[in-house]
Structure formats: structure tokens, C-alpha cells
Amino acid sequence: MTYHQAVHDVPVLFESCERPVRSEPFDATLGGAIPKEVVRSGLEIPDLPERDVVKHFVNLSQMNFGVDNGLYPLGSCTMKYNPKVCDEIASWPTVSDIHPLQDISTIQGALRLMHELEIALGEIGGVDAVTLQPAAGAQGEFTGMHLVRAFHESNGETRREVVVPDTAHGTNPASAAMVGYDVLELPSRDGCVDVEALKAAVSKDTAAFMLTNPNTLGLFERDVVEIAKTVHDAGALLYYDGANLNAIMGKTSPGKMDFDIVHFNLHKTFATPHGGGGPGAGPVGVKRNLERFLPVPRIAHQKGVYSLDYDRPFSIGKVRAFFGNFAVLVRAYAYIRLHGAEGLRSISENAVLNSNYIKHMLKDDFEMPFASLRKHEFVLSGRPLKSKGVRTIDFAKRLLDYGFHAPTIYFPLVVDEAIMIEPTETESKETLDAFVDACKKIVKEDPETLRNAPVNTARRRLDEAKAARDMVFSWRSYKKKMSGERLSPA
Amino acid sequence: MLQALKLKTVEQLFDDIPRAVRTDGLRLPEGISELDLQREMQAMMSVNRPASSHPTFLGAGIYHHFIPAAVRTIVSRGEFITSYTPYQPEISQGMLQSMFEYQSFMAELTAMDVVNSSMYDASTALGEAVLMSHRIAGGSKFLISRAISPEKKQVAKVYAKGADLGLVEVEYDRSTGLVDLNDLKEKLKADVAGFYYETPNFLGPIETQATDIRAMLGAKPMVVGVNPMSLALLMPPGESGADIVIGDAQVFGTPMNLGGPTIGLFACKAEHVRKMPGRLIGMTADVEGRTAFCMTLQTREQHIRRSKATSNICTNEALLALAAAAYLSIVGKTGLREIAAKNVENMRSLATRINALKGFKAPRFKSAHFNEFVVSSDHLSDKVHRHLLAEGIQGGYALDQAFPELRNSALYATTEMHTRADHDALIKALEGIR
Fold it and tell me: Which of B37, B120, B198, B348 to substitute to test the interface with A, most A CBs within 10 Å?
């Protein structure tokens, strides 16, 4: 193996504050402009030359792994390579240097882009109206659950329960709970929704059923038509978690599958790099009968002029200030424009092909729950490794030594020792083969090597229990904890 | 690859999708080249008027500040920008340490021990703070100052609804713009979960009654909203006993982006940490004893606790938190104080000049301000707005709708970005209103 991550000694920036420096006295009242009773005394932040700051962060960046470094098959996160032009466009002053409260005559281009993005997402999702306001997928779910609540309340109903499959992303039950719903987890059968169990679970108290299709095991829920009918017959709404949309563009759509509400994870499917955790964007699309509940403002369009419509008496209100994560929306628009209808379809085709290829190549080296076809991702079980005293986490850590980011592990919960792999469409066959080779090699390596992994990364395994115990979340709390004791850099 | 899978066509990979739900492609235009994309989008976006092309005096939660070039250099590093939530800490130390440093900057500025590694924006941070206060103190109502942004108010209302919490507004003093302590006292009943106020508040005044508010609240959570840049000069809320501090760190190195993405700052007292939403980065060591960082207390989060999590948040604004850490490192203590001082200086100078104009009063409230203030006028807000726009200026944010009691008033922000010439242009244009 040839991968070695850089290892730099990079002291926490704040260590430089501990060096005694002579500083000029500073009058924070600014000669009386700020009242004495609210003026600050002392400010312990570093004062470093730009040169040192750039060195600090560039060296830190070299101790970080991104899609630009290599394969990042983190299941359910769609870590694809994104065209750099999208980032560049988002940085133009005409995009980034505009204020949300500017007179709308001076932001017509931005409003037009959002309006056209709503239409494109509506087409991809098979829905009639889209709001771009939610800031992330989970906030899309939160918005969707408020739409569910508003819908039932408008019918004079208070339904208390939201049903989610046990394979659902953790955000689904969390979002439903945040909107005040009780959550019922439905056990799956053969990795999919058990329609009979669903029929037994839904009632007059069911507000919605949340589902992602393909589901988190990468299986397409073939019974989706019957699922939709079951949910609708109970008077409930069907919610689509769009985290796995990368598998189906141009093949089917949530709307076609009769979902009522859908969120899109623009950072997964449509070209915003994940930024170490964000930002993303989680637009929500709905069928016509739910449009009146969407957040304000709606973007209106008449004779080439765009305006903002706040006069929406049934609207749930606002889930985020202003319009949403505009810079992310711009990237999504650019990405959709760049690829077009055919391009988006082939993205899904290649994502599914790559996933099935790796699955096929690895099926004899691991346990493969559920034999059938997969979509953009699939889940292996690392259970066979247990007999040699090795767990999934050890396998995942060893992959880092080979220069691959680890897959998602121990999720979904229904698979023992789960390893969830999503290669995405942007990886070449050579990369996929190299990954397969590494996996095959690793399972044959001696257990000790795996349990000791990783060794080629900037740090070796961490004492995560210590982090939880010490609760040092900032330099300030570190100093309090150590009461003067200095931190050694490495 | 198809051969390996013993398939003839890619189409067969989709055989598991029932015919009844199949679609026949997408009705979208065909793709275009990168060159054509740039041309097309340049044409589309050139219709927008960026702040760099004309003076703008808008603030109201989103601020136009200078961003040193090195910030962009740092946040553009592919290793940062194309990574995700650091689930594998051994290979993600760069982002983890950067997040720890972001948390450290915010902890120092706010004087709070615990800062998470970001929420979506200030409005959702407020929504989450309302819910967290409810987890701490129970109750059926939450008090919010009337002097907060209408956007934030609307978002907080939606978040509160999920916990069946009612929001009750506490009046501001019509003369000083500060919290009306009598009204607070009256509304502070047993079923109140906590109180949120801002300093400087939405209308500009810097709150001076933190000690009184803290005392009145007793054990109930005190939630304070800040403009974190003002904390270069102002006493941090942690020193006044705040339980939760929120704000938007967009002021540190993130452009206005039409209002998003920005960075929800969220801090709390150490004793409340297990009730806190969002991701936390903690310091630890690796097996060789080297200092290292990882996500911690994840049992609060949705991927572990599902419906019992403290929040549903997953994706956050990490890259912008990195930008904030980079910004603060580059400007440093000295630079930050200078910038903050320049904001105050510009505010005072502009308010004084507007106040000298016939038909205008500024600042409307008798209090100290940071970089934003209310201008009241003898003219209709819309008339002033149209006149300024015709002169190529974005005037302040009209308050008539959200604050009917402040008729013919607008909220003006001025930062270090404004030159003397920008102020001159505004003054000249205001003078021209008849």
C-alpha cells in the first residue's frame, strides 16, 4: 500500500495566547461610546501573522481526507465528486455579495434562478410545488412534518403518530418527534417494508409514513404502490426522504410513486461538496393539495418579473430566515443545467452500476444479507470477521490505511456488523477495482493488524471515552480543566 | 462491469422498479458545456446588483463585512471542502481541530464553556434554544423580546409549535429600546420556560440590564442573542450568567449569500451540555498519547438516539465555521478590535449626520449602539426607499410592517465597508427628499 496521510505538529491556535506578549492598552469604551457597565475586559484570542495562519490551516487540511483525495464510499451520504465550476459560480460577487432584503428589482437574477430550480426539482421529484427554504435534509423532514401537521389540522384532525421503518435514517424519527409526533418504528421483513405489518400499524391516528426508496439497504421497495395505497387509505400522508434520490433520477420519481411530500438533499445529489459537515440544502416538494401550506415567501413570476408572495394564510410560516441556503441552490442549478435530462439519468445508472459491481465482487468475502439487486448503495455484514476476533470497525479502520475513506458502519441497525457502501457514479472502474482488492486483502490480513489499524493516518485510534469524560470543548474549558497545565502539541 | 454482473444492459439494473411507477426520462433541457454554463449564468446573475456595485445600508441579521483573501484560500482547500462529518477521526483531524478552534473562538468571545460546531443560522439556533430551554425548565410558554427580527420570530414560532409552547412577547422601552423590565416581570409566570433577548437587539440598542434580567429570571433559562463581532468590545453574555447564547457568525468571513448559508452560533453552560442540540468536538488523545479531536457526546444526536435525540440536526454549517475560525485567526485580537471600533465609529458618525438633516432623527433610541440604528423620518418609508434606490443606494430596512409602532422608520447598518464617500452619497440623497 502506498497511502500515507501527512502528520504535522499543529498546536491549537490558542496556545500562542499563552505566550506573554506586550500589548497596547485598549479602551473598549472607545472614549465613552460604549457604556462602562457593558464593556469587555480582556480578549484572549490569538494575534498571529497571516503567514502563520495559512500554514496552520494548510497543514491541518493535509490531515483531512475528502472526496478530492480519493474514494469516500460513505453509504447514505452520496460523496460524489462535484464539478468545480459550481463552486466557482457560487463565489461570483453577483451571487455571494447580495443581501436578502435588497429591493427585489436588484435581485431578479437570483429570484429567477430559484424559480427555475423549483421547476427542475419539481420535474425530478414528480411534484407540483417546491420550497427551497429548508437548510438541510433533516430540516426538509422537519418542514415536511409541519406540512403534515398543517394538513391534518386543516381537516380538523389531530393525528398523533408518525410511522417509520426500522431501516430509516435517524433524522426521520427525530424530525417527526420535533414536530410533536409520537414515532412508531415498523420492523422490516427481508429488508423491506412488511406491508401486512404496515396495514396493521396504520390507523386513524397515523399522520404520515416516512420512507426512503430505495431504502437504506439499497433495496427498492417493490411494494411501493401498495404501501402508498395503505397509507392513503388510512387518511395519512406519505413522506419521501430524498437522501437516496441519486439512484432513481429519470427512472422513477417520488411523485410517480405517489408520495405526497419529498425532500431533496442538494448536497448529496446536486453538487455541493459536503464541507466537512455542511452547508447543505433540503428543498421540499409537495403535491398540489399541500402547496398552500408551504413556507413563506413563495417566489411568484409574472411576465418576466419575479416577486415574493407573503400573502399565504395557510402557510406553516418560516423554517429558516430568508430564502434558504442560496449559495447551495446556485450550485444545484448549475449542476442540473450542466448535466441535463440525459446526464442526470446516466448519473443514476452509473451510480447503480458501480454499487452492484462492488457488491458482486465482494459477495463471497462477506456475508451478503438480501440477495437481490441493489440500487446506488448496498449493505454487507462483517459478521464472518467475528470468528477471527475482528469487528466491522476494525475492517473500516484498516481501509483508511489503504487510502480509502471507510463506508458507513453499524447502520442500518437491522444488519449485524453492517458495512454500508455507496461508491457513487463518479468513480472509475480502476478505483472500484482497487477498493475491491483492498477489501479482499484486508479480510485475509492477520487480526492484530486490523485491530491496530489505522497506522498510516495523522492519528491512530482515539480514546473517545476520554473525550466524553473530559468534556473539553474549547480552549477555554481546556484551560479551566488543566488549570494552567500546558498542552503538548503532539 | 455489466459483463461481470452477467447483464446485457444497464436497464436491467432497474428491473426491480415496478412498471407502474416507471417514468420515461426527465423533461429538462439537455446539458451544456462548462463554458456555456458560465456564459449563461453570468448573463442571468449580472441582473443582480451586488453590494460592491452600490452602497447598501441593509443589515437586519445579515452584514456586509470585509473578508481577507486568505480566508478563501483556506476554505477552498479540497481536503476540507470535499470531506464530510468526521465519522472517522483518525483521517479527519484537520477538520476536527479546526472545529475545536471555531468552538474555542466562540467560547472566548461569548465566555461560555460549551459551543457546538454550528447550527444552520441564527433563526434556527433560536428555535433550538427555545426547545432546549423547555427541556431544561418545562413550562408551556417562552418569553421573547419584541425587539427581535421578524424572520427569527417566525422561525421560533414554528419550532415552538412542535413542543406545544406558546411564544409571548416582552415589550421594549419605547425611549431606550431596551427590555421593558416591568413588562418582563408581569409576564414571568410559573409556566414560563425561559426568556430570550438580544444585545445589541434588532433595533440596535446595546442591552445594559443583564444583571437585573438574570436576577428576575431566577433559575429559568436566560437565552441571549448576540452579534458576535460586537463581543470584541462588549461584555460577553457568559459573564452575565446566560444559560444559552445564540447568534450568527456570518459576520466572520462568510459573504451575505442572499441570506444563506450562514452560521448558527450556539453556546451553553457546561451544566446543560447533555440537553444541547448539534455536534460537539472534544479534545482527547490517540493510543500513542498524541492530542487528538473527535465528535463527542453523540448519544444526544439523531443517528444514535433517533426519536429521543435533542434535535434532528445532522448536516450543519461546518465549512463556514472553518471560515469563521480562519477569519478570526487572520484578523487576530488587534484586528478584530479595530474592525469593531470602526463599526462603532461609522455608526456614530452616520447617525449624527442623519440626525442633523431636517425631517430625520437618528438614532431613534437613547442607547449605545454597535453598527445598526433606527432612523425615523417625517417621510413615508416607501418614499425614502424609492428615492434612495433611484440614487443607486439601498437604504435601511423599513420597520413599518413588523413594528407598526415605529412608523416611517428604517433600520440602517453601516460597517467597515463604508467609505466616507458612501456616507456622503447617502446624506446627499436623503437631503434631496422633499
Answer: B120
The verdict on residue B13 lying in a domain is no
**B180-237 confidence digits (pLDDT tens):** 999 999 999 999 999 999 999 999 999 999 999 999 999 999 999 999 999 999 999 9
For position A92, what pLDDT does the model report? 98
Q: Domains in chain A, please, with CATH? A: 85-339 (3.40.640.10)
B237 interfaces chain A, CB cutoff of 8 Å: no
Are A163 and A143 spatial neighbours (Cβ–Cβ below 8 Å)? Answer: no
A458: cell is 495523522
- Compute CA B56 distance to the chain's CA centroid, rounded to the nearest angstrom: 19
Report which DSSP code applies to B29.
P
C-alpha cell, B277: 442540540
Q: Could you tell me if A319 and A367 are in contact, meaning their C-beta atoms sit under 8 angstroms apart?
A: no
Give whole-number Cα distances, B382 to A482, B397, B400, B426, in Å: 58, 10, 9, 16
pLDDT tens-digit map of B308-361? 899 999 999 999 999 999 999 999 999 999 999 999 999 999 999 999 999 999
- pLDDT digit string (tens) for A301-345? 999 999 999 999 999 999 999 999 999 999 999 999 999 999 999
CA geometry: angle A428, A429, A431, nearest 5 deg: 65
Distance from CA of B69 to the nearest CA of A (A): 10
* pLDDT tier at A1, thresholds 50, 70, 90: low
Domain encompassing residue B343:
56-66+332-431
Residues of B in contact with A377 (CB under 8 A): none
**Shortest distance, CA A444 to any CA of chain B (angstroms):** 22
Q: What is the pLDDT of residues B392-404, one digit of tens each?
A: 999 999 999 999 9
Segment 323-362 of chain B within 8 Å of chain A by CB: 325-326, 328-330, 332-337, 341, 344-345, 348
Statement to judge: residues B193 and B247 lie in one domain: yes
Residues 43-82 of B with CB under 8 A from A: 44-53, 56, 58, 60-62, 64, 68, 70, 72-74, 76-82
Decide the pairing of beta strands B141-145 and B166-170: parallel
Q: Is A110 on the interface with B (CB under 8 A)?
A: yes
Question: Closest chain A residue to B236 measured between Cα atoms?
Answer: A40
Collect all residues of chain B within an 8 Å Cβ-Cβ radius of residue A109: 44-48
How far is the alpha carbon of B192 from chain A, nearest alpha carbon, in Å? 19
Quick one: which of A470, A98, A76 has its CA closest to B291? A470
B392 in reach of chain A (CB within 8 A): no
Residue B91 lies in a domain: yes
Q: Residues A87, A331: contact at Cβ < 8 Å?
A: yes
The predicted complex's ipTM stands at: 0.97
Candidate from A65, A83, A323 with C-beta closest to B259: A323
* Residue at B35 is within a domain: no
| Residues B395, B304 within the same domain | no
Q: Are residues B222 and B284 in the same domain?
A: yes
- The distance of B120 to chain A (nearest Cα, Å) reads 6
Residues 6+ apart with CB under 8 A from B384: B377, B395, B410, B430, B433
Q: Which residue type occupies A154?
A: S
> CB–CB of A130/A284 below 8 Å?
yes
Using CA coordinates, name the residue in chain A closest to B278: A277
| CB atoms A400 and B91 under 8 Å | yes
Buried b (16+ CB within 10 A) or exposed e, B122-148: bbbbbbbbbbbbbbbbebebbbbbbbb
**3-state SS, residue B212:** helix
Q: How far is B298 from chain A (nearest CA, A)?
A: 9
Answer whether residue B243 is part of any domain: yes
Q: In this predicted structure, which of A12-21, A287-296, A337-346, A372-381 has the lowest mean pLDDT?
A: A12-21
Question: Helices B93-110 & B318-355, crossing angle to 10 degrees?
Answer: 30
The count of structural domains within chain B is 2
